[in-house]
Amino acid sequence: MRLNTTLAALGALSLPIASADYATSGPDKDGLYWIYSEGLSAAFITYGASISRLLINDQYGIQRDIVGGWDNASYYGIDQQHPHFGGVPGRYANRIQNSSFVIDGETYHVDPNENPTAAAPLGADTLHGGHDGWDYRNFTVVSHTNDSITFSIVDPDGKEGFPGEVVSYITYTLRDYTWDFKMVALATTKKTPIMLSSHTYWNLDGFANNETNTALNHTLYLPHSGQRVGVDNILIPTGDILANKQGSVNDFWSAPKQIGASLNDPEALNNCGFNCTGYDNCWLVNREEPYNWRDEGNFVARLQSPWSGIQVEVYTDQEAFQVYSCNGQNGTVALKKTQGLFDNSDFPRTIPKYGCLVMEVEDWIDAINNPEWGRADKQIFGPGGDPYVLQASYVFSINTTATS
Questions:
Q1: Annotated catalytic residue: which of 114, 160, 319, 360?
Q2: pLDDT at position 381, please?
Q3: Can 38 be counted among the known catalytic residues?
Q4: What are the boundaries of each domain within the chain?
Q5: What is the pTM assigned to this prediction?
């Protein structure tokens, strides 16, 4: 009875209004659930509640699929590389130092799955919830209309070492040229950390640019992000909050800048971890109070491609923004049949290093191990309290005057 009551309460917070006129028949032959709006078509799968397609016409009227993924839903669960394509990492996104945290004086140890060492052969930290985090699991489709889909998951007490049961709904909706999502989660039995995100791989050229096969031509603007979280060689937060000095590698706040503009600067080496050149950083979102995150122009990020003319502005109620410039891609992940160039030996049908960009709306990473930041009320949730809620909108437009 308790679980049914919880599901009903969460459903009231997150479910779209369904209509018989817009009911759909389920997945297509590739296991994709499609939704539509003016200017956009998107497909999702139950594995990780992942986005698998996002189709939009570029400045020349050519349809582009601008997110990474696989052709068939069945492949997501068997690919050994598992780059978290388009899924919802959980129950705690990003990294957890030493795979442990303390709540009310009790230490919890969760599944380590990254950076193995002699002292920690399974891993020195936990990334995206462990070996069987949420984006490795199949969600349940609880609502599917012409323009919206809602997934649910029940995460049991003790799974991957996390305390307490968590019940969650993930709702994706298309309207006009906008992709909205809302993530709601409720801790039903014990206090537990919860932090979710969308781990979507973007290439606004649909990997079809005949001038470059990377996303380094994309221009990024983070107008509220003059600071970032300091990290060590394996990207674990040190507790320090660093300034993104104007003109520095990590300065995307003072003016829009191409992703590749600063990668030859000495400062770019080790910026994304030991011996890594690029970005895998958490920028803080510092907006003047009060603000309405939905207000036009109050975006936390804007990404543009001069080649395709496609632009996306990211609006969210979250206060941090992780950017990963696909430094770990090495040309072994195949493109989908909806992407890339064909019969061109100069541009293999794979994702190269720097071939994409991940943009994650979320809270301050690993704040559960940095209590001095004062983020506990945004990351630790328990029975009887408010649910975890994440909201975001990705607003698309076409700039026919874009230049490189």
A1: 360
A2: 98
A3: no
A4: 2-398
A5: 0.94
